[in-house]
Amino acid sequence: MNHAAADSLFLRACRREAVAQTPGWLMRQAGRYLPEYRSIREKLTFLELCTRSEVAAEVTAGTVRRLGVDAAIVFADILLPLVPMALGLTYEKGDGPRIAAPLRTGADVAKLPSFDADGELGYVGETIRLTRGDVGTATPIIGFAGAPFTVASYAIEGGSSRNYVHVKTMMYRDPATWDALMHYVVDMTVAYLNMQIAAGADAVQLFDSWVGCLSIGDYARYVQPHLARLVARITPGTPVILFGTATESLLQAERDTGASVIGFDWRVDLAATWERIGHDVAIQGNLDPVVLFAGRDHVVEETRKVLAAAAGRPGHIFNLGHGILPETPVDNVLALVDAVHAYEHR
Ligand code: CP3
What we know:
two-stranded antiparallel ribbon; binds coproporphyrinogen III; globular; alpha/beta; TIM Barrel
């Protein structure tokens, strides 16, 4: 354990300890809205950038310095494990990830290769080690992975999806194959995240970005038990943040996975929802990322509303309700971070 970071505002908030100031970081804080990022991307493809640890660490650490946020998040992507899974992952300019060989049948799932996350995704661990050398011991570093449902949704649909018809078809018509896929992804993700923790990640976030397409009944049957097994196998003492969008009806079940911090998207009323799921769990969120397209005064006002809704209770980490969008004005992001740090709970 890295002791200087253990006392950081961010890790104290993960443990629901009282803090003098609410910590904040932003999902997708390193990305195309930053001119520095765009200039690095002129020379490297996205996958090259992720796998070249020295460059990925510079992007991770440079973003923390540029924004003044309270945590670094390792520069990587939730879909990187699809490369050793041999699914033919590419990122197409303008339309996101494409998977050449999507999983549809029991035979497809049975053929998935076993791989050593330490070896084949070891460059993510190296990025974390290099980031630590750069940011020092006081800045917490967040490792991450896609949550099993969201990873499986890309692997099955072959890219982004609107209705998740192929995913749900597998769940309903061939639940044994769905369960086998969940077991595979959980084992892989446990190894991948524990490798990131061994490399120096102080907390880990599971991105379940698209799980909000499920009913609570389907979530309870097809997702929640797998997440609970995953969370139970994360290196003890490491906070696990579980994030999803459109999850208002799922939040109680998310909390029952044993995750330490529950992510709220912007659709939920922070105060009422925290009360409903219980103040004995930490939460993260939840400003609408599109508010960053408003005028600066509006950005500051809405940021302060989120902080006021948390009412200075221990266990709030400020964040957006989803990732920063590519066209976001940088000055508004800086104004948001200043507003978080200037806020005083009365
Ligand atoms: O937060 C950070 O700064 C760390 C890096 C990070 C990236 N992706 C880099 C990235 C993180 C935490 C992610 C998570 C991720 N990736 C999610 C979950 C968060 C969310 O937004 O719901 C998802 C669904 C993905 C999958 C993914 N990766 C998509 C759909 C896309 C294409 C759409 C897009 O935004 O470009 C990516 C590519 C990607 N991942 C980029 C970055 C900076 C853009 C690549 C580029 O063109 O440079």
